[in-house]
Amino acid sequence: MVEASSFKGRDVVSMLDFNREEIDFILDKASEMKPLAERGSDLLKGRILATLFFEPSTRTRLSFEAAMHRLGGEVIGFAQPGVSSIAKGESFEDTIRTVENYADVIVVRHPEEDSAVRAARVAEIPVINAGSGPWEHPTQALLDLHTIREAKGRIDGLNIALVGDLLYGRTVHSLAFALANYDVKLYLVSPPQLKMRRDVLEKVEGRLNYVETGDLKSILPELDVLYVTRVQKERFPRPEDYEAVKDAYRIDREMLRDAREDLIVMHPLPRVTEIATDVDETPHAWYFRQVRHGLYVRMALLALVLGAL
Amino acid sequence: MVEASSFKGRDVVSMLDFNREEIDFILDKASEMKPLAERGSDLLKGRILATLFFEPSTRTRLSFEAAMHRLGGEVIGFAQPGVSSIAKGESFEDTIRTVENYADVIVVRHPEEDSAVRAARVAEIPVINAGSGPWEHPTQALLDLHTIREAKGRIDGLNIALVGDLLYGRTVHSLAFALANYDVKLYLVSPPQLKMRRDVLEKVEGRLNYVETGDLKSILPELDVLYVTRVQKERFPRPEDYEAVKDAYRIDREMLRDAREDLIVMHPLPRVTEIATDVDETPHAWYFRQVRHGLYVRMALLALVLGAL
Amino acid sequence: MVEASSFKGRDVVSMLDFNREEIDFILDKASEMKPLAERGSDLLKGRILATLFFEPSTRTRLSFEAAMHRLGGEVIGFAQPGVSSIAKGESFEDTIRTVENYADVIVVRHPEEDSAVRAARVAEIPVINAGSGPWEHPTQALLDLHTIREAKGRIDGLNIALVGDLLYGRTVHSLAFALANYDVKLYLVSPPQLKMRRDVLEKVEGRLNYVETGDLKSILPELDVLYVTRVQKERFPRPEDYEAVKDAYRIDREMLRDAREDLIVMHPLPRVTEIATDVDETPHAWYFRQVRHGLYVRMALLALVLGAL
């Protein structure tokens, strides 16, 4: 039996560290946060969150900060490394050792893949990974699951496609780890250059029912969830390679005619051109509603690791 | 009869959207904020303001943030676009749609003239315009009126000069819109290259008693209010044009000998050289006191649009 | 007899402005802050701190912000001048005059030596110096003393070495001023190019028992406190001069074999290579614990100058 107290003081570094029972528990707690997200609360009054963003972010940083404030807590931190002592040559570990003296929990985004692990190793207070280079983004995976559960009432039994850049996309790595705990059929849809990282698949081998394909159109009619990610031009050595694939995965209203009526389209955002704005007003569009679920999930995580539930 | 409840959920995008009765109501509420600005309050406890500044600002951003804190609320946001997902190519509308999930009210400054209108159209929560390119800055106009009313006891019947860059100066555009609701004589004093925008005048034609002139000295003795703005060098194609006009509108103590004893000198700040520092210690100088009125006005606006009054 | 009320409204600009009785009083109050630093308090509820950082900082800025939040207060400000109106040519004094309308206390870091004095002269609310160019950093000196007192139970009678860059290091200037109030033996250890500033020594002449030397090894066995600072490459005109001295003052575990068992090693941080990481796990290492004392001292100072104790 999972209990709230078992999360107290815990780091949230990788989706691989959480089993199904724990994930479901977090999602349940996130749902309970909805009324507090409306009217605020004093659950974390007097507590301080440090948000250390070594890479730019709108959504994740503001989402964590709003989550902390809705629970009555306060926030310190930086939104870019230039204003910190990193510029003076301080090591990442020294920065973490310093900041943990000022806060009760640290949220960190950093371009290096092992950053969150290293921060958690050094800090005595809980560390939450808000994006570790191209490797993981576990709180995004949790909010994705929470959104799916809200839209579909369940996760088991769904046909889910992850589309776009599966090689560098940290959100789809964490989501694949998370979905390995559920009975889903997962389609991994990408151009050949951006196929799902092999070490991600190795870690879920035997636990995840997946198919790799480059052909979105043929599987589209079967899908319950279409999870789109950005394909970045700079990932391609030759511009013509980018031009060749970018339109293959561009979702628009026309294309969605072949989809199930209750298909939901998700996206970790920011979206550039990979979902046409004509989809925004359709009932398929869940990517902006998805944002709200990030607030619930992060409220739950902060309250759990600070032992307030 | 204007009532506080009629402001709940409302956007503050343009001074053209408010009639005299509404403006007077906001100014009255601003005056009531003075004691709360001293000792704080819990009026907006649990509420969150998002400040989205796509252009640099000291005054306006800190003023809104202080206003929110004095009312017991919290703040999230960014002070420059570089730390946000704009850098990743996200549209302005998508950023707004995201952020409205985290906050109860949005304050936005953006270099494009239609930015605030677009934000208000997209967001379901109230949007307050903190500067829309060279077009408008309505909360500055409200604090200007509040300052005038405090200094003079009234707005009607005053002789007011707006001096400097009336073409690109967003504060004077909003102020002209606001003053069209009052019985004032308005002098628009500028070099020919920086005359008041024609579309500003068109919108108040017939409602505003104004005179355009390049000659400050001759009208100075008649003025109750001298509102100075910065003339920016970069507005002039030829440096010599700038040199020719910049001193014509430079206010110093010597020049103010010709002014009424109770003339007040105002400035939206930042001031560079257009008001000499020897004016600072005279009773004419109201530009630093003016800053304080921004706090009152923004407290009132936040409380009104959030339905807390 | 020093009383809390005598600090109300006072500026904290230079360690030279405080006598021993006052310093001891502040340190006592800092010790009383420890429980509030754990669980928070409402001592400064409704009050606002403005942090104006014209130079990058992690520790000092976040430390002040955490201190304010632990006391129930709020924070506004900027972490770099680029986002403020400085970029538009506003004078430092005008920025201070503006910001004091929004806050109850100002913390300022600025590259110019007289910045804090100038800010205090202009502002009617208290100003706390968080680093005035290469000149002073008084709150760092106070946290250093608090750390020493905690580690050693006293300050009088100790042998203390300040090592590294004593010419440009603002923390060691303020610390020398502070230590002039105590009965200590002070070793000033530096390469000849980076000897203690003459005007610092002049100000404490006759009140401070000090020895200047370039030889750390020979005095090491006598020391109770070894205070290390960063020697910055850019201070040396020729790279070979830097290479020649940087290792002379590099502290590692091997070197500390000659030290007293209860020697404490301190550093204002950020540390680059001047203390090897193999020292971190020894009982000598106090530089990370030192960070925590900054929180206590800044909580005490904020509460004192705001008249809340």
Task: Kindly summarize this structure in a few lines.
In chain A, 36% of the residues lie in helices and 15% in strands. The first copy, chain A, is of the alpha/beta class. In chain A, the strands form 2 sheets. In chain A, strands 7-6-5-8-9 form a 5-stranded parallel β-sheet.
Q: What would you say this structure looks like, in words?
A:
The structure is a homotrimer of 309-residue chains. Chain A is built from eleven helices and nine strands. In chain A, strand 8, helix 10 and strand 9 form a beta-alpha-beta unit. The longest helix of chain A has 19 residues. Chain A has a five-stranded parallel β-sheet with strand order 7-6-5-8-9. Chains A and B meet through helix 3 and helix 11 of A and strand 2 and helix 4 of B.
Provide tags for this entry.
309 residues, alpha/beta, Rossmann fold, five-stranded parallel beta sheet
Topology summary:
The structure is a homotrimer of 309-residue chains.
Chain A: H1 20-32, H2 34-39, E1 48-53, H3 59-70, E2 74-78, H4 92-99, E3 105-110, H5 115-122, E4 127-132, H6 138-152, E5 159-163, H7 170-179, E6 185-189, H8 198-204, E7 209-213, H9 216-219, E8 225-228, H10 239-246, E9 264-266, H11 287-305
Parallel strand pairs in A: 1-2, 1-3, 3-4, 5-6, 5-8, 6-7, 8-9
Helix pairs in contact in A: 1-6, 1-11, 3-11, 4-5, 6-7, 6-11
- Give the largest chain-chain interface (CB within 8 Å): A-B, 28 and 26 residues
Task: Examine the coordinates and then state which fold CATH places here, giving the name of the CATH topology of the largest domain in chain A.
Answer: Rossmann fold
* Largest sheet features of chain A: 5 strands, parallel
Quote the beta fraction of chain A: 5-15%
- The tally of strands of chain A reads 9
Gross geometry of chain A: globular
